[in-house]
Every structure is written in structure tokens, then in C-alpha cells.
User: Fold this.
Amino acid sequence: MVRIPDAKVALSTASVYPESTATAFEIAGRLGYDGVEVMVWTDPVSQDIEALRRLSDHHRVPILAIHAPCLLITQRVWSTDPWTKLQRARAAAERLGASTVVVHPPFRWQRQYARDFVTGIWRMADETDVRFAVENMYPWRYRDREVLAYAPDWDVTKDDYRHFTVDLSHTATARADAMSMVGRMGDRLGHIHLADGNGSAKDEHLVPGRGSQPCAELLEQLAGSSFDGHVVIEVNTRRAMSSAEREADLAEALAFTRLHLASAGAAAPSAGSPPGSSSSPDSRPPQPRVSYGRPRLRRP
Amino acid sequence: MRLGVLDVGSNTVHLLAVDAHRGARPLPAHSHKTELRLAELLDADGAIGPEGVDRLVATVAEALQAAEDKGCEAVLPFATSAVREASNADQVLARVKEETDVDLHVLTGDEEARLTFLAARRWFGWSAGRLLVLDIGGGSLEIAYGIDEEPDAVVSLPLGAGRLTAGWLPGDPPDPAAVRDLRRHVRAEIARSVGEFTRFGEPDHVVATSKTFRQLARIAGAARSADGLYVQRELSRKSLEEWVPKLAVMPAARRAALPGVSEGRAPQLLAGALVADAAMDLFGVDELEICPWALREGVILRRLDQLPMTEVGAPTVR
Assistant:
């Protein structure tokens, strides 16, 4: 039985950097992505709901998620108050029809925010249908030092949130076991940031398939479990020497994702298993692994 | 009052101590410059590596000491494109804060263009009419246009001289094919934005800020910086067009021997000239004037505008 999951595949507007938010809509439309996730940051268009709506209408690309401006470099975007940023992100998501707001855990030095974060996020989530999906981060490694920049924890599964985003570049950077983390998130996994990494201290955001993270395995598991969130391609294409090369990378990422989500030939999972849980390996025939002309690192 | 402006740019970290109060022209008192070349320290993924961050932190600490030595009451710290665009910007900012207690205010490209425009407007005044301002930095090119103090149109493009040299012109002197490719790229990028400005009509006065433009003007015959701020300095498109092919075949060492060109900036001068030439050509500018005030002065002026009139430091000497 062929299961076509409800999961849509979106392009993060950060994936086209240094090209603009507007260009991301254009590329997403042209390549056949199901929508975009808007990274709200210093680009004024990304902060302007009307401009985003016009781009979405013009390119016929739905806005599936909003990534709140949580970075240090965006500390003045949409207010300096972190709760106000989240309220504005929720309002933007509601007005633009996005199902999810992606949010990072607080920085350690945002003490009050860090103390109130878990309860505050629950409260905000209760007031809306929009999902606040808290994203796993990583310790900042610098030479021999490790800086724990996030609080309560970079490993967000240590706290109780209603929804999670799992980011596979961040699991690589944190040198964490991605599939275990996904297991801990269980049915509260609401959103995927798909990218790859090799465990470098730099958060690499490679095209999926070019690193050592279980991108394919995760997608196949999602496909087998009727995951109803979105899969967002969040990759770094700065190295691209031209727009054509950038688009080729983004097309490859989309093809990888679609392929591994289409669990064609897979047996249906056993009745009663909750969405998001790992399907037993015995119930599925082995899936062919497809490479795209680039060597895949074999995990030891 | 004496204010320090700490400019973490793509080429240099510059601490400028300025004596200023509201309603007065900012008077530079002391300059402390360190060449850091942050734009060149960005790796292929756009991150500033550990050595780069170390040097940045040390340079900022040194600049702060200079500010204290010269009696600055306050320091206005800001950063532009190299830090703004670093893929690990957050970590860089956090380390600078942690080790020097400086909160680097990262300006967006738009903010850079607006503040530069403000400085040019205050320098030339209302009599300059519709003003077009061009600035070629290490990381980015800013273009701003307007008739007031706030520009009507601004754009910041990733066409800084340092960035383009690092990305497009390896080799010393660079390969002619590489130079042609860069020329094409620069013109295509600028051409996309030209329409945003030409819709407002022809400017009455075209001015340029930044070291790149000052150096190009100097090699084309303008007065030396030692002659002071008030000497008029111009750059004609014709002389720039003559210089581009000459610069293209010179190795950096030869360029550094040109009047007014520092050794540190000689490698970037060709890319800077290509951008300047493209901008003047596409905007139809035959001649522009060099403005000695730019982003740093704009930051100070904006800050002074925000201070109340009764701020301590207004002159009481009769």
C-alpha cells in the first residue's frame, strides 16, 4: 500500500541566503515546494505581513510556518521583548495561515525569560491553534570550551513542551543521537527542520544526504507514521557560486525529501501504533538507498 | 561632550573620538584604527573562525582602551556587513560581549545607507537638493537618494571591495577572464536596483563616501587628505574608465605605490574601481564629489539628535 503522507515540504527563506526573502518565494514556486517557512530576521520584507502575503499570492506559495526572530543578531526585530516577538509571530501565523511558529529556547542571559519559558509557551499555545514548536539547539563549542548558551537546556526534550521542532543540523552540531531525540519527542514532534551535518562545531546545515545524520531514516519513519506536520528544508547555500548552483542544491534537497517520504511498497504500520512512534523494523521491507551523485558518508 | 564611535567594519576596526554637542559639527579629536580584514576571515560557509573572533575581541578591547585614554564619556559601538552576515554572528556577538562587555549594535544594510545619507546631507546642506550618495565598503555597496534628511530610496548590495576580491579575484594580478566575469556580475547586480532610484528623477548632486572612493579620486588627481576636509575633491567617470584597465594589470604591490593607496587596501582597489565605474555608468553620473563625512559621522549625528538640548557639554565659554 502506498501511503502519501500529509506532510508538506517547505523551503526555509533562510536557505537562499544571501538572496532575499522575496527570491525564496520565487524559487520555492519554481522548484515545486509545497510552501515556505519564513525566517523573520533583518530583511525588512520578512518582518512585513502584508509584503509576505503579497509574495505568497503572487508566487502561489503558501506560508506554512513562521520562524520567530530569536537570534542575537535579530534582537531588535519585532521588539526587544522576547514574549512580544512570539506574540507577533503568532499573529503573523494566524493572519497568513501558517500552522506553526518555530521558537528557540531562551539564551541563558535572558534570565527572566528562561525562568518563565516553559509555562509561558504552554500558556501561549493554549490561546491559539497555531503550534509553538520549540527547536533543539546545541552547545556552542569554541576550541576546547563548551558554552551552554541556552536555558533551560539546548536539549529541549529535557523539558515538557506541547510541540517540538527537530533540526538535524543541530543534532549533528550537538553530537546528539537524532533518532533517540525524535523518540523522546514522541507524538509531540510537530515540525521538522531537515538538513545534514558531520558533527562540526559550525552548524553546517548541509543538503540532506551529504552528511552523517539519519535524514532518510527520519523521513521514512515519518511517512510510516502519518506525521501531519511540515518538513522544512533549512540549508546553507552560501557556497553556491551562482543562482543556478543554489537552485540545483535546493532541487536536490526537495527530491531527496519527496523520495524518502514516499514509502511506496511499505506495509502499513501495525494498527494502534500512535503517530510519530518508531515503526518496528520487521514490519517494513528494506528501502533502497538512493544517492544523488555525491558520496554518502557511511555511519560506522 | 566627547563621544567615541567604534566602527567594526569589514576592513578595519576604527575608534573615532569626537567632540560634539547638539547643533555643532562633530570635531574629530582622535583616531585609533586597526586593520582586521574581517571580510577576508569569513570561511566558505560564511563563518568567522576562532582565530578571527580572537582577533576581533582583542581589537575591540584595545579600541576601548584607546577611548578611555582619550577621555570618551560614552562609546557607540556598531558593526556592519562582515559581522552582520557571518553565519555564526550570534556566537561572535556573544563572545565580544562576554570578553569586552561591548554590545555591538549590528546595523542592517538599510540603516547603514540611511546614516551615511544623513551625514552627507548635513555636510552639503539643503542647497545640494536631490542627493544621490554612493558608498563602497569592504563588504557592501550602499546607495541612497533623497531630498530630505531621510532618504526616499536606499539599497545595500553585497558588492563590497573586500568581499568581491576574496570571492572573484584570486591571483595577483588577477586573471583577465576573472575580471571580466566580475565586471559582468557587478553591473547585473547594480542594474537590478537602478530603477528604484531613477523613478525619482535626476539627482542635483552626486556624492561618494568611503575609503575606496577617496583613494580612486586621489589616484585620478584629487587633493591629498593632508590638504584637509574642505578642499573640493572630485572623481570623473572618464578618468575612472581610464584607470580600471590600468589597475587590472597591476599587481597589488604596484597599486600600493600609487598616491594615497595603502598597502592594506591595494588588493581590493580593482574590485572597488569596477563597482565605482559600474555605479557611475549605470546611474549616468559623469562626475561626483567626495564627501568626507560618512557612516561614523551619521551615527554620531543621529545620537546627538536624540540627546536633549540641555545636555552637559554645550559650550559655556563666551
User: Anything to note?
Assistant: Chain A has one domain: 8-283. The longest strand of chain A covers residues 189-194.
